[in-house]
């Protein structure tokens, strides 16, 4: 198939694009390469996909991969660009669109709400319009576990009420689900939303706990532990996530419901202090913990019920936290030459 993967220089998008290209699909990766976090990391991911940084810095140019050849191409483009995005759809004639591009981060949405509306609302609308106008059969898109807000019933299920988001980021992701439902109903194409739970692993995002804790411990700085460590997360290893997304993209479209939302996580919840202990063990260093109150927009516990994804796509997350943390630490020390 020919597949558009937006957010291809991002954490999940990089893995999904690489997985699809290795399987022989023709992939076009799109990313704006914004400066929400270190752009050098984004360019380093693109380098792994065979895309030269100097070429990738230029907007609107489609670049072929030095690793995958014509099987992977990259274009730097913003989803908000209502002129260039339709041109891309018209010229490339995609079979499937996998929209993983978004302004991420719960806490940053308190500081820069406009970025979330631009990318996650306006950008997603532009994707939906292009999917509609260019007759794309299937749109797979990223939602988030953040939509569950302060729900106390554990584990989280897609049938739970999610009408009470507690961050603008979560509100934009819930909006994406509603917009996808509307377009599926009106125009007849298939949309599959994925509520990602805390994803971690090599090439991960510097604003997430795994990265922040490791960086602080290596530097000898205290780590910030919110809610005094009384938190739990459904930590999900990146390879398990990417495999799940690719299965959804590849499965015969005739067997899908027109509109569907799934949880995609590890199907268990790990105490934050246990997660930190795994990092300490791998680094051989004890962390100095700065115990802090709960952050605005944050939640105490997440846990994904992934039964539906297992049933429909044989999704089987199988990476234990100890193995995943070990892989991340090995990558981190190598990437930063420590």
UniProtKB/TrEMBL annotation:
GO terms for molecular function: UDP-glucuronate 4-epimerase activity. The keyword Hydrolase does not apply. This is UDP-glucuronate 4-epimerase. InterPro entries: Epimerase_deHydtase (IPR001509), NAD(P)-bd_dom_sf (IPR036291). It comes from Flagellimonas maritima. Its EC number is 5.1.3.6. It is an enzyme of class 5 (isomerase). Transmembrane segments: none annotated. Keywords: Isomerase, NAD. Residues 3-265 form the NAD-dependent epimerase/dehydratase domain.
């Amino acid at each position: 198939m020919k597949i558009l993967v937006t957010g291809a220089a991002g954490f999940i998008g990089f893995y999904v694009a690489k997985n699809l290209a290795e399987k022989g699909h023709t992939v076009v990766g799109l990313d704006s390469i914004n400066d929400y976090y270190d752009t050098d990391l984004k360019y380093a991911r693109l380098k792994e996909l065979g895309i030269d940084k100097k070429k990738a810095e230029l907007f609107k140019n489609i670049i072929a991969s030095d690793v995958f050849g014509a099987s992977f191409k990259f274009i730097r483009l913003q989803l908000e660009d209502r002129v260039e995005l339709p041109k891309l759809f018209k010229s490339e004639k995609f079979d499937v669109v996998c929209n993983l591009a978004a302004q991420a981060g719960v806490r940053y949405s308190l500081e820069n709400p406009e970025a979330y509306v631009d990318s996650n609302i306006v950008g997603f609308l532009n994707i939906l319009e292009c999917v509609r106008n260019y007759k794309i059969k299937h749109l797979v898109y990223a939602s988030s576990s953040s939509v569950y807000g302060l729900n106390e019933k554990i584990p989280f299920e897609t049938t739970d009420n999610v009408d009470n988001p507690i961050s603008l980021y979560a509100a934009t992701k819930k909006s994406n689900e509603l917009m996808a439902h509307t377009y599926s109903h009106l125009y007849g194409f298939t949309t599959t939303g994925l509520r990602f739970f805390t994803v971690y692993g090599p090439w991960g995002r510097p604003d997430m706990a795994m990265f922040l804790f490791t960086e602080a411990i290596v530097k000898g700085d205290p780590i910030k532990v919110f809610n005094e460590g009384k938190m739990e997360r459904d930590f999900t290893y990146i390879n398990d996530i990417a495999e799940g997304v690719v299965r959804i993209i590849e499965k015969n479209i005739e067997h899908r419901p027109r509109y569907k939302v799934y949880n995609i996580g590890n199907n268990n919840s790990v105490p934050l202090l246990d997660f930190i202990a795994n990092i300490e063990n791998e680094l051989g260093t004890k962390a100095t913990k700065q115990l802090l109150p709960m952050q605005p927009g944050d939640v105490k516990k997440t846990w994904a019920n992934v039964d539906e994804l297992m049933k429909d796509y044989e999704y089987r997350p199988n990476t234990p936290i100890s193995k995943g943390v070990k892989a991340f630490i090995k990558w981190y020390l190598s990437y930063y030459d420590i």
